[in-house]
Structures are given as C-alpha cells and as structure tokens.
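For reproducibility, we list the full input for the iron/sulfur cluster complex.
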Amino acid sequence: MEKTGCNKLHPQSMCPAFGGLRVLMRIDGAQVCMAADQGCLYGLTFVSHFYAARRSIVSPELMNVQISGGSMIDDVRRTIESIASDPSVRFIPVISTCVAETAGIAEELLPKRIGNAEVLLVRLPAFQIRTHPEAKDVAVSSLIRRFGAFNEPRREKSLVVLGEIFPVDAMMIGGILQKIGVESVITLPGADLDDYVQAGRASACAVLHPFYERTASLFESAGRRIIKGNPIGANATGQWIERIGEALGLDPVRVKEVADEERQKAKEVLAGFSSRLHGSVIVAGYEGNELPLVRLLLEAGLDVPYASTSIAPTSLGEEDHRLLTMLGTEVRYRKFLEEDQEAVLKHRPDLVIGTTSLDSFAKELGIPAIYYTNNISARPIFFASGAASVLGMIAGLIEKREIYSRMKEYFVPAD
Ligand code: SF4
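The corresponding predicted structure, in tokenized form, follows.
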C-alpha cells in the first residue's frame, strides 16, 4: 500500500478533552463531573481509565430529552451535590465538552464550593480546543487562575516547572536546580491541589512544552518571569540552566559552573554516539512536544527532513521552529496523517517516530517505526542521561533497519 489518501476527514488524534481529564483526574481528592452526551462519556471513560488516573467519571444522564428539555443544569447541579456528599472529595472539576448546550453551560449557575469540595468549570469543546496537549493547558490555566495565590508574598528563588515529564526527569531537574541555588520547585501538572495554590507565589515559571501558552501568559501578567526551552541536548541544557539562574537572580559563577558541567556531560554523550547515528529520521507525533526531540536528533548528527505536530505554532516554540527550519527540517503544525504519509514516501527515512497509523504505514514499506508517545514520552530525555537513553534506543533501531526490510519481504512476497 503506497498510496496516501487525501480526504483528511478521519479523526487525526484522540478527543482533546482527554488532555484536560488527564490533568484534572490525577489531582488527589478530585472527582470529575462531566457534562457531556453518552458518546463522549463512553469514549472518555475508556481512555481515562487507561491513560489518566484509572478513576471513573461521574456524569448526569444527558440524553436528548435532558439536553433539549431544559433540565440539564439542574441535573448537573444534582450530580455535583451527590459527589460532594462524599467527605473525601475536595475538588469537583465540572468538564463540559462538544455538545453545544453543555459547552455553553452557565458558570454562574454552578456552586463554587459545596461540602468539602471546590467546584470549577473547565470547558473543553474540541471545536475550540483542537488537541489534547492544548486541553492540558486549558485545564492547568483554569486551575492556576482560580487557585493560584498570586496575592500572597512571593517566594524568592522559587520556580514552577511546567510540563508533564517522566518521573526520572523531574528528579534530575530538582537535583540540578538545587545545585544552582533554587530553593523550591513546583512541578505542574501535579497531583496536589495545593501545588496550584503555591505556584502563584513562585518567582518564575520554566515552561518545558510549547503549548502551555495560556498558563504562561497568566504567570507573565502576574509579573512572573517566563523561561522558555528545556534541557534537551548539549547546547539547550547549558542555556536552560543559565536562563533559570538569570531569571531568579542566582549566583552567576555557580550557575555557569553547573551549566558548563551539564553541557559538557551532554556533549560527551552525543560524541559517544557519533559513530552509530547516521541516517534520516521522521518525527511525527501528536503530543505537542516533538520539536525538542528533533533538535536533539539534529545535534546528534542525524538528518530530520520532516517533523510534524498536532498543535498550532506558538511563541514558546518559536526558537525551536527557527533553528529546525534553518537546519533544513520541514516543520508542519496541525498536521494530517496524509501529510505525514507523503513525507515518508518522499524521504524514505531510516526510522519513523510517529503515530500508530503512520507507523503501520512505514512498516508496510519496510521502514523501522516506533510510536512516539510510548517510546519518547515514556522515557527520560533531559540532560546527559536522557540524551543517552533516547539516542541509545534510536541507534539500536537504525542499526536493525535491515530486519524490517526482511520482515516486509517475508510478509509480502515479491511478484
Ligand atoms: S464529541 Fe467532542 S468531546 Fe465528545 S468525544 Fe468527540 S471530540 Fe470528544
């Protein structure tokens, strides 16, 4: 099968509301109340059990009769009351989705607090929020806007690190920030509602992923410094540490020492792979954090002719965009599967790091392919150790390229 379709009509990623659910359901003491129709509820319950917090969603029964009959808001209120009757529930996020009536639910008709629980309406309609990464931003910014203690005294040398990351990366970040004199770090999205409160008192916010635009602008408008970028690859690692030191007014000598040390360690990892990393890779995920991986691959000496992501271009991702396009990568935002497929046919890369549908397409052509989400988002990528983990896996796959061609020959005998 070498033809690409051109209708671009089938779903290109999972339901965006899932991203918001992932953030909200993981908060301790939270019980989501969803205002959605049965179809949304079925699908979102399924993905939430598998990929969010293995918890159930509670929802009023919203069939056509309730939605069009005018009883919907009373049904939602009754459901909130019933959830709040459990004293262990401290937070009730009310999520509204695509159905026009639930998307337009009136916030002033919902309680702000009931029993032991805070109630917060988060609107996640797919026609407005196109992807699940962007829905994470909507959820985090709604939490910060409501709970962030921006009016309390600011904590000097304290930092919010914003972006869902692998646990080992969070530990590495904490260790390195401590070395340069950062006194407290809050990692968001987090499991403790109090972290969202305390985030308002931090002095600066390091935004690791480019789609957190709404959240970044909340911090910025409260006078907090925004630090762009992430410690991926040698150059960016040193620069990221220096930017944090500068934003928090830390000891510049100590900051430079640590930045140089970490840059050097990452350089040594990259040099260690130089004999093994040759060839071209296509990166095409839908997580919104693909471009920093491309930067790492380019720095390691690989060719990346094409990269795509589901999110729109953002000002937080501008630096990566400029660098990648300067180095010859064609970058596609709000991509369609068909565009990714065309890129695979055009470039015939040695490896595809893509979505499941693109990976099947590549494998049918005898090209090694792995799923971005399971293989990149689920392993460390920051600093020298993260680079070693990612590049080790990629080198192994490129070296085994031959096996994929043989597999193809086995399953598809020559005519
Ligand atoms: S209708 Fe909207 S909210 Fe419901 S499952 Fe589809 S994309 Fe998600």
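Residues 157 and 182 are 5 Å apart (CA to CA). The longest helix spans residues 252-272. Both points were considered when choosing residues for closer inspection.
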